[in-house]
What does this fold into?
Amino acid sequence: MTLLQVMAAGDAADVRVRTSDDEVIGTELAKHGVTFGRWPVVENAASASSEDLLAHYATNVAELNGSGRYKHIDIARIHPDDADPKWPEIAAGARGKFLDEHRHAEDEVRFFAAGRGCFYLHLGEEVFAVVCEGGDLLSVPAGTLHWFDMGQRPDFIAIRFFEEADGWVGDFTGDKISAGFPTLDELLTAP
Ligand SMILES: [Fe+2]
It folds into this structure.
């Protein structure tokens, strides 16, 4: 379920908006210059190769990148592998990477082909938690304070768009604000 939950930046318990209505989500985010969109979902995307997924979305990608702004387009994917004894460590490592507040020098543009992840956008006095699922496109403007939670059992496929090869590098603020907010797993189980 795609979800937007807006909370006061100083008090996560102060929930101001909670909606899974795509249109409302798009409208609320657009007020802050954040682009939210939907592309058609591929059945069984999780079992498709990254090459096949990029080929499938070639038209959507070309449309989004009409100006040629994004020079590096790839796929990031992680799936649970309970047969691998190192999986819990791999999952925790991947999850911890962007769990603290940071910003990037360029827009963070992601299309979720499958699975889910939550972007937390720290916009002024509020935090917008956006749970993205298969079919969701999110573009977070450069410089926006944010963090990302892939949950305790990371499982997603995302097309990433970069202007520079190192566009994913985060500038961490050192603020531990993320620790005071519900995790992806908690957001999903909230009433
Ligand atoms: Fe980021």
Notes: Residues 3 and 20 are 4 Å apart (CA to CA). The mean pLDDT is 96.
